[in-house]
Amino acid sequence: MINLNAKIPEGPLEEKWTRYKSATKLVNPANKNKIDIIIIGTGLSGAGAASSLGELGYNVKVFCYQDSPRRAHSVAAQGGINAAKNYKNDGDNIYRLFYDMIKGGDFRAREANVYRIAEVSNQVIDHYTALGVPFAREYGGTLDTRSFGGVQVSRTFYSKGQTGQQCLLGAYSSLNRQIKAGKVTMFPRRDMLDIVVIDGKARGIIARNLITGEIERHSAHAVVLATGGYGTVYYLSTLAVNSNASAAWKAHKKGAAFANPSFVQIHPTSIPQLNEFQSKLTLMSESLRNDGRIWVPKNKGDKRPANDIPEEDRDYYLERRYPTFGNLVPRDVASRAAKERCDAGYGVGKTGLAVNLDFRDAIKKQGKKSIEDKYGNLFEMYKDITGIDSYEEPMQIYPAGHYTMGGLWVDYELMTTVPGLYAIGESNFSDHGANRLGASSLMQAAGDGYFILPVTINNYLSGEIRTPRIATTGPEFEEAEKSARERLDKFLSIKGKQTASGFHKRLGKIMWDYCGMRRNEEGLKKALALVTELKKEFWSDLLVPGEGTELNQELEKAGRVADFLELARLMITDALNRKESCGAHFREESQTEDGEAKRIDAEYSYVAAWEYNGEDEPILNKEPLKFEFVELKERSYK
Amino acid sequence: MKLRLKIWRQKNAKAKGAFALYELDGVSPDMSFLEMLDSLNKKLIVEGKDPVAFDHDCREGICGSCGMFINGYPHGPVPGLTTCHLSMRYFKDGDKIVIEPWRAKPFPVIKDLIVDRSAFDKIQIAGGFISVTAGAASEANSILVRKKNSDEAFDSAICIGCGACVAACKNASAMLFVSAKISQYALLPQGRPEAKERVRAMIAEMDRQGFGTCSNTGACEAQCPKKIKLTNIARLNREYYKAY
Q1: ipTM rounded to 2 decimals
Q2: Which among A67, A126, A176 has the least Cβ separation from residue B137?
């Protein structure tokens, strides 16, 4: 069993972080430049951490698979970034932001971590603004905010539908400043193949240069994973197609517990699948639900064009089921409701796997110009992809895999169960419980990277000031490189008949069908058998062309798919274990009479932190969730 | 539909490249251009051939990874789209499509359609930032920015760094790319303290990387998938003169 000590500071909720900061150990500036830190990933959390740690004086080495750190997938976040500034005078404060996240996460997140991220949210906005991020402004020159699903205040800062891009480019600019200063060294086009652990501590990585195929060893006093989520396990998702779980999975195999792997957010508003070669699902921002009304025909199999279906034959099912929040219910609720209608045979479009998102009434009321001002770029994007003009007829949308609340287990200091190995941003599990609210992921990633990790990591590194630079010649590096090479050779030597993408697609289908929006014991057990079967087939019939000593995108894919096949098993195991419904995890066996998710607090108020156990059943460790400051309530949006 | 594809193949940076011809059947108008290439690659792999290498990632037009010359146009013949957003609806049965990598000296070919755009990063490293350390920022609303300036800064800041402007330019000039960043900071009060050092450093690095000079033909603006405006270049020139 693993020791899951979350190291939560004593004291009242609002004083924990302050107390921690006052008491934690520091590292003398003269010692910082003797210490090396490796960071994997250059999204909001990774680039933020790299620049902050560089500013503090540490030597930082940063790795990403893209050709430039500016392309990390944070770039694609659309809607916004939350902060408890209360600029709208609508009664917002840190506690409310904290409470909305705890409730939105269906009481499956750790209070102390969530409160802290709400606390640093304001600093994040100050910092990005100082960095020149062009957030939307009012005519008086102050910052503008808008409201987002699941909350009743206006706390979301935004840059049109490209907030992620603007924040990421801000983070990229501060990263560049440290590269120029010589404190950060950038290694783009690298895949991390393994973590090197020496005497129980994370001490380096094995990486593959994606252009030359060279296998490299890099050492450090600490390693930070900022590698994002694993939503591409579904193959089709809103993520970048190369987003992957490999770094996190390698960390897990080297001893880092993986927490709540089955907690996956399915986003309700993406463009549905259009063809069999489709490689990704494009998200349409949640903000569209502010003005769009979601409906399906009242009559099964009604094939009339949407505009020909009269009002009395339309079922605005979200407004019907949730009169208070209507079309603005949280993502998990909206997604399940769409699936429920489609599964019952009321879906629209070629495949029947879509629902209408209709702007007719909004245009009638506010005028086309007003809708164009708010969503013009989104309407354009929708037309580019589908050829449909949504000013004239409804958009068709369907849920898609989007964000993973689960991730590497971390303590209050964001350290995994491997000493010296940290996980920040989406790659950890800590702040969103069983469901994430909109505009909270940029906030968490930036907060972790700029303002939390650069404080907490000192506590560990203060014990490392006498550790000289780690040599890359020891047996641990030797062994890790050897096994990484053997694995690559194995992929190349199978010479079967099926491509890595083919396997990935099949895995995605299994996960989507049985471990997606709705889960039940029978389906999950079936999925477990199917994944095991598929994994066997993968290792005997995979076809990877070319060599390992050159740029070989198929070889890169093979490694990622191999890891997804293992992670899928853990996700299913976790979903099987949690026999309650909570947030995005919906177990059909645990629902209320009217089909809403039913939590079972007495049995499942814990974080499931899984320990790797080779081919055997993973080992479950439980971190009990204690709610000292909020009362557990049924999460109702009716 | 059935297509004839003429694609630049080059094994690595040192190899001599050449065009290769492929026939591809079963292309659906619902596919994106990259999905069409995915389907070609699947066919090539199964036939025991080397698939066509190309950069791509988000496939929603924002990361800037993808980019190729399609029938003589960067990102293809439809304005305002990245390659990943280019739908096969714009092509018809029997079409011949010529696909090449970005052609510019500062962007050497790595393999097939993949080029090395690290010169762009080097320009940004030279000065594309505001020097503020985490923790040092003042209250966000203590900096007031005229909405018009803020909106214009945003319009410049949306550059995705794909390199289409350089590829489109007969001089392989990076002026549109550099001017977008310079404009963003020039329009914001936060960017003013370092304005002179920034523009000097970025222009010097741009020249060092071997990008050509601007001769005002405007091909960059016409081909930019994000519609970054030429007026940015005018602002860059003004900022540059002011810096000396």
Answers
A1: 0.98
A2: A126
